[in-house]
Write a structure and sequence with these properties.
- The protein has 752 residues and is α/β, with parallel strands linked by helices.
- The protein has 29 helices and 21 strands.
- The chain binds a DNA duplex (15 and 10 nucleotides) through helix 6, helix 10 and helix 26.
DNA sequence: CGTTAGCTTCTTTTT
DNA sequence: GAAGCTAACG
């Protein structure tokens, strides 16, 4: 088993040490054990949903370190999210005794590459202070490029350009190789934009997400000395979620593995859901062609779900062609059938789902944090949030607007970026006049024209313009004042930690005061966000006491939605199906099971293939331990219009005997909803003309109406949603707060 | 110079 | 129905 290729390989895992930690593998099933102890040479692990994959990975790392005497620093393990990486490290540390702070290269491709790039920056013509652009920054930059090329939104769509550039980078194509990518008529234009964009990035001393990996791959493929260094450093490679790796990531792994071939990949073809981001299922499917001597181990025992859930999932996924094929089995009982919930409108759907959640909580004592709502697109979360809030059920939404994408937070992060690297023109531009310091658009335009003409960064152009007195004296004075402040912060950041720097910036700029002192909800939220940033930073610094400003900024740039998810927090989790990958809950609700949404029409149009959508559904279902609820609505608001939706084809692909429509006997509250659907004219699923009166609130409550709530007090109605029993009104209270009220429960009085 | 009203687009998913 | 952008106004 332990084929020894050179003396640094783990040849001694045959030795007597093996018994010492035999407890490490004794709790594993035979396949898992084989997956953990097959340490040398290429290995392909096909790990079905719930088959103990994380367990295998953590045990494998522990086994390498303890049993095979592999230094922890020789292991390079790639996970799909930073959260998964943190959890794995945590579990490894719990498994074996390691000095705390043992450096373990377990992270995402992007994080690992960022670290490599930091130390090799000079070889790719970056400074080691380079910054990472997120997608919003990319867009800003592209828009700037469009302006420079005198293009209007009618000529090109910046978002499309971004998409083309990203795709090109994943395929390792340069500006001149866009044939077949960009629209044929405009391929020259796209090439020009791509090139300019890349130049601008360099001027900013910045890279985008794709560059992080691309630069490292290019470096490895062109500089064999550097590659050898890293091949020697990382002797054992492990890649999780291999079905979702793209060409770039494959090339990176291939390069690193070339010398020692100790490469273990873990994946599941049925859970590949990122092809739109360039992931190639063929990386997994063809692994044995690329490494003909690769061992294949299948993990097919599922430790998570009931028999019924697995049977339904298996039945569904059989419809896919691109598979190895596998048979998941479990020792668990049949359990409940899958439940189908149908609402007349999306509000009814949400109401029924929330009611089910409430019952499961109160009648079956299932904690809220053991329940999750999954949807195909973020926009569906809203209705469920509204109903959960109205019922006082705790919940957390993962996704939507990321914390670090909120305007206030972006402003402050931009300040930090400018301090870390004044050449970050993008960030400098953002904060130059925020809060207002009288450096307006005209001035900025003049300086950036000057910068462009003389090939200077904005920062240097500002200096130059002031020195040469190219601007009105008043402007120069203001710019100089700002530049002085910047110098002051830079000094400060050398002596103090990032948190203290942030405080200094807040104080010196009067940023919070610039919100104004009115006590509107908006201002309060902004202030709250700033506070939250301070807290988050504090916490980060506690966990990473040695972190520099650059480290902190890198973490912020690479933070993801799911990283914000707190499993400890009591509350129902709301997230997209994509975010749900790798998680598990006792009860899972998959909502919005309707045709244009799920399977998503645009996704099918893009790929010409429904299989990935089906896998997405498969991923969702297999997150559930005990129960799966599926829901849909007959009609749904989209783009401000009512749309009549067709039930998802996936509902028909489930075995009928395992799906039960929620009925009155089991859940009495369903009866009202049944009647509502009948009245709505859609209970048979057929489409009848919509009676518009059914979608408007009773006349007695109108927008702007003054009302009195028994406990909340007086206020003005600012929004009316829902109908009948589900009628919800938002009241802007005279105390300044806004509250949603379910009129069914509250005695609302009119006042004048 | 800064604000706002009205227009457009947007919803697929995210490292 | 919201957010982001332009154009026109104060």
């Amino acid at each position: 088993m332990c084929r020894s290729e050179d003396q640094r390989d783990a040849s001694d895992c045959k030795g007597p040490l093996r018994q010492v930690t035999s407890t490490l593998v004794s709790s594993l099933n035979p396949q898992q054990r084989e997956a953990v102890t097959t340490v040398n040479g290429p290995l392909l692990i096909i790990a079905g949903a719930g088959s103990g994959k994380t367990r295998v990975i953590t045990h494998r790392v522990a086994y390498l370190i303890v049993e095979c005497n592999v230094p922890a620093s020789s292991i390079f393990a790639v996970t799909f999210t930073n959260k998964a990486a943190e959890e794995m490290k945590h579990r490894i540390f719990a498994l074996i005794k390691l000095p705390s702070r043992t450096p373990l290269a377990i992270a995402t491709f992007h994080s690992l590459c960022a670290t490599i790039l930091r130390s090799e920056a000079h070889k790719v013509d970056l400074s080691n202070r380079f910054l990472i652009c997120d997608e919003a920054d990319q867009l800003t930059l592209i828009k700037e490029c469009c302006k420079l090329l005198k293009l209007t939104p009618d000529d090109v769509n910046p978002r499309h350009i971004r998409w083309i550039i990203n795709q090109a980078k994943i395929q390792m194509l340069g500006p001149s190789e866009l044939d077949g990518f960009a629209p044929a008529r405009q391929s020259d234009l796209y090439a020009q934009l791509y090139e300019l964009y890349q130049r601008k990035l360099r001027e900013n001393d910045a890279v985008d997400f794709e560059d992080l990996i691309l630069y490292v791959v290019r470096l490895f493929e062109s500089d064999s000395a550097t590659l050898t260094t890293y091949q020697n450093r990382y002797r054992y490679l492990l890649v999780d979620e291999y079905q979702d790796t793209n060409l770039l990531q494959y090339r990176l792994v291939k390069a690193l593995a070339a010398s020692h071939r100790n490469i273990c990949v873990v994946g599941d073809e049925d859970q590949s859901i990122y092809s739109w981001r360039g992931a190639k299922l063929s990386n997994l499917m063809d692994f044995q062609k690329i490494f003909p001597d690769a061992r294949l181990i299948r993990l097919e025992q599922n430790y998570r779900s009931t028999q019924n859930i697995l049977a339904a999932a298996a039945h569904l996924i059989k419809n896919n062609m691109q598979r190895f094929g596998k048979r998941l089995w479990t020792e668990r009982q049949n359990g409940h059938p899958l439940m189908l919930i149908i609402g007349a409108t999306e509000r009814d759907e949400a109401m029924l789902v929330v009611e089910a959640i409430e019952r499961l909580h109160s009648q079956e004592q299932i904690s809220y944090s053991q329940m999750a709502i999954f949807y195909r697109q973020n926009s569906l979360s809203r209705n469920f949030e509204d109903h959960l809030r109205a019922r006082n059920i705790p919940y957390q939404v993962i996704g939507g607007i990321r914390f670090y994408d909120r305007a206030e937070i972006k402003d402050l992060i931009a300040y930090l970026k400018v301090v870390a690297n004044p050449n970050a023109s993008l960030s400098l531009q953002r904060v130059l006049n925020k809060p207002r310091r009288g450096i307006g658009e005209r001035t900025l335009q003049q300086v950036s024209d000057f910068a462009h003409a003389h090939n200077l960064t904005l920062y240097h152009a500002l200096h130059q313009c002031c020195q040469d007195a190219r601007l009105p004296a008043a402007a120069i004075k203001k710019i100089n004042a700002f530049l002085d402040q910047l110098v002051h912060w830079q000094e400060r950041s050398k002596q103090r930690n990032p948190r203290q720097l942030l405080d200094a910036i807040l104080e010196d700029t009067g940023y919070i005061e610039s919100f104004g002192n009115e006590n509107s909800l908006e201002v309060l939220i902004k202030k709250d966000n700033v506070q939250e940033l301070q807290n988050a930073m504090q916490q980060y610094l506690q966990e990473h006491p040695l972190a520099s400003l650059e480290h902190y900024l890198e973490m912020v740039s690479l933070a993801t939605h799911i990283d914000e998810f707190d499993e400890q927090e009591e509350g129902v989790a709301l997230m997209t199906l994509h975010c749900a990958k790798g998680l598990e809950f006792r009860v899972v609700f998959i909502v919005g099971m309707e045709e244009p949404i799920f399977p998503n029409r645009r996704a099918i149009e893009d790929t010409g293939d429904i299989e990935e959508e089906r896998r997405l559904f498969y991923v969702g279902m297999t997150r559930a331990k005990d129960r799966v609820f599926l829901s849909r609505a007959d009609s749904r608001m989209a783009f401000g219009r009512v749309q009549w939706n067709v039930p998802s084809i996936f509902l028909r692909e489930l075995p009928t005997e395992l799906v039960k429509e929620l009925d009155d006997e089991e859940f009495t509250w369903v009866k009202n909803a049944r009647e509502a659907r009948r009245a709505h004219g859609t209970s048979g699923g057929c489409t009848k003309a919509l009676d518009p009166s059914r979608h408007t609130a009773p006349l007695s409550i109108t927008l702007g109406q003054r009302v009195r709530h028994p406990s909340l007090g007086d206020g003005t109605v600012v929004a009316v949603r829902g109908e009948g029993d589900a009628l919800i009104i938002s009241i802007q209270l005279d105390s300044g707060q806004q509250h949603d009220v379910l009129t069914k429960h509250a005695q609302i009085e009119h006042i004048t």
